Amino acid sequence: KGFDEDEIEESNPIVLSSNQMTFVGNSKVKTIEINIGFSSNDFTIKDKQISELSQGDLVVFKSSRDTKEEKQNEDDDYVLGIANSLLGSDSRRSKLREIQQEYKTLLKNKLNNVYKHNYKRWQLVSTDLKHYGALNPSPQNIRNWINPRKIKPLKFSDFNAIMNYIGLKDKSASYWSSLVEIDKAHKLAGKKASELLLKKLNETNLNNIYNTGYQEIKLGLPGCPSLGIYRIEHIIEEKVHVHFSSIGKVIKIKDF
């Protein structure tokens, strides 16, 4: 409640250890499998969809226990923080992020301005995009395309249709190239996060995981927040609609 319809994402609430909870949408979640050995433990890190998660799984999110100072100085999304460090200088990174947000803002303006008071605005924008050559401009995909956490459509044909629709046809190819660069940085950041996490796991006493179902890990990168490893206590099957910013954000159950 209290936010625009175009800023919501369908998600499953997940109850975590230590009286915490979060929401998981259509993005993958980093999980840890611990294979207990005689002299040492072996860890497997996997990215899983909500449908692949189960009670008892260990999942990784930004720690909910960061201090106020840490929260001010770190990116909310730990993969985002690493990806930003891979995009070059501050000016280069800012330019790429501006491109990422520009097409989203202009597409959102079509919903909010052109069809502001029309309850069929999602369908109308979908029809408009089909006219410009989009292959699958479903309302859910349009939500993904304006979601600031998403980088780009899967197919160039859909992106090209968006760029035609918002009046940036001549920049379609160059913008797509920039978005591909951002996407590659995020994928590389995800791999780097897994590698660093694996290294830290091998250096950390994990008694807290076994005793309380929670462990804090610091990757040691500038701009990267502390991570929390949580045990899933329960996955609520009934989906709810939450603001984009609530996806993957760990909160106390009493605050829900």
Search tags:
256 residues, alpha+beta, 9-stranded antiparallel β-sheet, 8 helices, 42% helix, 21% strand
N-to-C span: 12 Å
Number of helices: 8
Largest pleated sheet: 9 strands, antiparallel
Strands, total number? 9
Contiguous low-pLDDT stretches (5 residues minimum) are: 67-74
Please state the CA-atom Rg, rounded to the nearest Å: 20 Å
Class from helix and strand fractions = alpha+beta
Shape, per Cα inertia axes:
globular
User: What is the percent of helical residues?
Assistant: 40-55%
Order of helices and strands: EEEEEHHHHHHHHEEEE
Explain what you see.
- The chain is an alpha+beta fold.
- It is 42% helix and 21% strand.
- It has 8 helices and 9 strands.
- The chain starts with 7 loop residues before the first strand and ends with a strand.
- Residues 67-74 have low confidence and may be disordered.
Task: Indicate the topology.
Elements: E1 8-16, E2 20-24, E3 29-36, E4 41-48, E5 58-62, H1 68-73, H2 78-86, H3 90-114, H4 121-131, H5 139-146, H6 156-165, H7 172-203, H8 207-212, E6 214-217, E7 227-235, E8 240-243, E9 251-252
